[in-house]
Amino acid sequence: xxxxxxxxxxxxxxxxxxxxxxxxxxxxxxxxxxxxxxxxxxxxxxxxxxxxxxxxxxxxxxxxxxxxxxxxxxxxxxxxxxxxxxxxxxxxxxxxxxxxxxxxxxxxxxxxxxxxxxxxxxxxxxxxxxxxxxxxxxxxxxxxxxxxxxxxxxxxxxxxxxxxxxxxxxxxxxxxxxxxxxxxxxxxxxxxxxxxxxxxxxxxxxxxxxxxxxxxxxxxxxxxxxxxxxxxxxxxxxxxxxxxxxxxxxxxxxxxxxxxxxxxxxxxxxxxxxxxxxxxxxxxxxxxxxxxxxxxxxxxxxxxxxxxxxxxxxxxxxxxxxxxxxxxxxxxxxxxxxxxxxxxxxxxxxxxxxxxxxxxxxxxxxxxxxxxxxx
Length: 375
Ligand SMILES: NC(=O)c1ccc[n+]([C@@H]2O[C@H](COP(=O)([O-])OP(=O)(O)OC[C@H]3O[C@@H](n4cnc5c(N)ncnc54)[C@H](O)[C@@H]3O)[C@@H](O)[C@H]2O)c1
Ligand SMILES: [Zn+2]
Hints:
The protein is an alpha/beta fold.
C-alpha cells in the first residue's frame, strides 16, 4: 500500500481533508459516495431524484494527459467541461461558457464539481461551483505544485478582470482536496519550479526548519522523488491549512500569505503573463526582502539565504526585461491588497516572523525595484 497523508482543514461546518500521495485519486469515489448519501438524506421523499452526478472542469492539456486516469477512479459518465490552458481562461467569459454547458446538461444543485488542473482550473472551477445555483459542492484535484500546495487549499476562488488579477471572486470551501502525486510527474520543469516559490514563501513566513529541509533536499525535490514530493506537499499543506483555519476570510493572519505577492502580482500583470505566477512571486520575495532589509527589519544574510534557495530551485531573482518602475508602483496600488490608497506589504523581521506594514512609500518601492532590474 502506497503511503497517503491526510491533512485536516478544520473550519466551522465546512471541515474537509486534504489527501496527498501516489494514487490519492482512489479517495475520490469514497468522498463522492459520502456526499451523495448526505444529499439524499437532506431531500424530501418527493424530490428524491438523488445526486445527479459529477462535473469535471478540466484544463485542456491536463485532460489530454491524465483524464483517462482520473475517470478510472470515478463513477461512470461524468460531465467533462474543458477550458484552454493558461491564465487567459481565468475570465468571466470562460465562466459564462461553463454556465451555458452546465445549463445545457441540466446540472442541479446536488452535482459535485471536480476541478482538474493547476491553479487556473481550481480558481475558475471553484468560482463556477461557488456561484452555480448559489453554490454547489466541489473537490479540488490539483495537478501543479502551485495548486497542490497553495491554490487548492482555503476556498479562495475567482477570475481576473482587465483592471487587476483576481478582482472577481468568492470564498467557497471545497469538500475535499485530492492531491495525487502521480499527476505531477508530467508537469514541465519550469512550472514545477514556479510552484516551489510558494514553498519557499510558506517556510519563510512560518517554519525555519522547513526552509532548512528544502535547502538540504533541493536536489531530491527537483528530481520529484516520490517520498520527498509527498513530504514537500504535506508540509506545505499543513502550513497553509493552519493559517486558513485561523483566518478563513483574510481578516488578519491569512494576509501573511501575501508575502512576496504585492510586487509579485504587479509584475505578473505587467509582464502580461509572460512569467509564471511563481516566478513573479520569486521576484516579489527578493524585492520585498530588500525592502525589509532597507527598513532595518531583516538581516541581509537571511534575505541572501532565501534568494539562494530560489536560485537553487531555478527561479528568477532579476527581471527578464526592463519595466517602468512607475508602472509597477501603479500596479501595486491597483492590487486589491491596497486599502485606502496606502501600500500594504507583508515583510519579514526574520524567518517565520512576518509583519504587516501599511506605510510603504513609492520611493521605497522605486529603490528596491532597481535592485532586481535586468543586468
Ligand atoms: N486561490 C488561491 O488561493 C490561489 C493561490 C495561489 C495561486 N492561485 C492562482 O493559481 C494560478 C496559477 O496556478 P498554476 O501555476 O498551477 O497555473 P496553471 O493552472 O495555468 O498551470 C500551469 C501550466 O501547467 C499545465 N499543467 C497543469 N498540470 C499539469 C500536469 N500535471 N502535467 C503537465 N502540464 C500541466 C497547465 O496546462 C498550464 O499550462 C494563478 O491564476 C493564481 O492566481 C490561486
Ligand atoms: Zn501565489
